[in-house]
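Table S7 (text form). Paired inputs.
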Amino acid sequence: MRVFRCFLVLLCLGLMWTTQVPAADDYITVQELNTLHPEQVELAENFTAIIQKEGQAMRSGTQKQPVRIAFIYPGKQVSDYWRRSIESCKQRMDEIGMQYEVFEYFSKPAVEIRLQEQQMRAALKEDPDYLVFTLDAKKHQRVIERIITKGRPKLILQSITTPLRSWEGKQPFLYDGFDHATGSEILADYYIERTQAEGEYAVLYHSQGYVSVMRGDTFIQYMEKHSKLTLVASYYTDADREKSKQATLEILREHPTVKFIYACSTDIAIGAIDALRETGKLGDILVNGWGGGSAELAAIMDGDMDVTVMRMNDDNGVAMAEAIRLDLEGKGATIPTVYSGDFMLVEKGISQAELDTLKTRAFRYSGTD
């Protein structure tokens, strides 16, 4: 028992909320981008129309050799978002007749930053034409800036739809994903309605970085503005299931009257559910998913998870394929700076038929199984 208590104390010290995270002001929202660069509105609309249609064959003679694409993903997690992204991108490239060679690198989110740096070096040695990466930890920014300055490979930043303000004038090739702030506000509206805008709640953050700012801080600020709900606890979890479980157990001990626990990712939500099940609180305290991948949808249908915001997942993989195609065809000027996909709110109690319809749309390339 003493060993467990020491572990819990150390864990909670490591998870306690701090202010050493990027500020939201560092980023340009999609709305602000459209104000600063009005031409982006039409570019985004036209690009979205291409993504939502079936793939059209590439122009004959476009490629003399296969295009080389490196994916460096924090994909070692319960969420299947990253796996589906690569699969949908490759299937769209097959559909339009693109010749390609792919290099894939996977790591755990938040805790394997050094491995990601090693993978970046390995990927660059392959001299890819395009490199797909993400931006969460502050260390990522310095690496990305060097690539942008060099100009090769062309950089696709995935799971980020808010351009960095400091990169104005020389942005990456494409920002691609589903807007974290939009998804978080959809979930916030759900909780406000379910709780009549009153009571206590807790937040389980990702790691100290972009995702926590955009999903966690946005949610809290929205609650402060639109409800009387009170935040009583928040923890960083590194998107780790066990850390999320332990943090939830601590929340339940210290604040047993919380109405819901807002989770910033799939693995976090599953960890919170583990704790609620262990304490007999499952069903009494609301918990959400974030993203609507297979694990979350199964939890919804099992009655363990109350709600999630579901990404139309495969559209972001299609967006990467189509941006590369347009670039190879000499139509780079028609590619928007940002592609941001659609969400649907999925609640416990949804019928199997309704869910199957959503899955068919969201996973149109990567498969509904």
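Next pair, protein 2 of 2.
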Amino acid sequence: MTVDRPARRIAARVRVAVGVATAKAERPRNEDAVWARDGAFLVADGMGGHDRGEVASRTAIEVLRGLSQGAPTPDEARAMVREAHAAVRALPKGTGRRPGTTVTGVVLTEHDGVPCWLVVNVGDSRTYRMAGAVLEQVTQDHSEVAELVAAGVVSAEDASRHPRRNVVTRVLGGGSRDVEPDVWLLPVSPGDRMLMCSDGLTDALSDARIEAELRAADDPQEAADRLIAAALAAGGRDNVTAVVVDAAVTRRPA
């Protein structure tokens, strides 16, 4: 595929360094899948029992890696997420639950000549941005507990211990015929550090600990490795994946 002019312009203006780390922890296999190249940085966390979760996350990523070709618009991203949803729904059900997967991440694109992160999210995997050494969660969890917190029924502190904290309300695949992804644009700022992770990381580590580990390492690969090591040392039992992306805005377009 020929790379279009906006994509070339973005590549000339925004340089990225990437770190990727993952571990199966105490699970029999790693059902997380990752795409982290060509301006697209995505994490999918599969579910469905046996090997179905692994297949679901891999199937979603195989479709969504298409976001790395060109400079997608929000509407194009929504269409591709729905294509991924259909592909996961088409997988054989087997004897367990219907396969499903979360997905979260960012894609480098452009809006009105300004380099942007195109944020994509379905489920309770998370995307964070650290700017000026301050960590901010930029995605909203699609989960029962997140809805309870938003309604004021459960406190944010109690949410991390709630027995239904891992019950998601939106997934790719699963039983729903359609899915509504969260998709929006976030201007790239010099020095942005983006983190995409599965809930194996956020279940094991608080946001404060995640921020501390990101601050402790200048190199994104070291940062990703530190996060995974910290999650395992904290007793994390679920698959855990972290993608860390550092961005440097190099110059204005000619």
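DSSP finds eight helices and eleven strands in the chain.
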